[in-house]
Specification:
about 70 residues, mainly alpha, 4 helices, globular
Amino acid sequence: MPKRFRLTRRFPVAMTEDGYRRLRRFAAEAGLEEGEALSFLFEHFDSVTDQEKLVHRMRLFQAELEDRR
């Protein structure tokens, strides 16, 4: 029997405009709402990310973060 999909947590999230546009595009392409898309991404995080690329992109993001604030 499949698990019932319940959104049990709500929290305020601050996102960049680029990040939010990408989330909305991903959700629309997948036929999901934004909250469902985020749930999918985090529930399946390890299988939808490339660990080496993630570490590299995180370092780039962190290096630019102070300038973006």
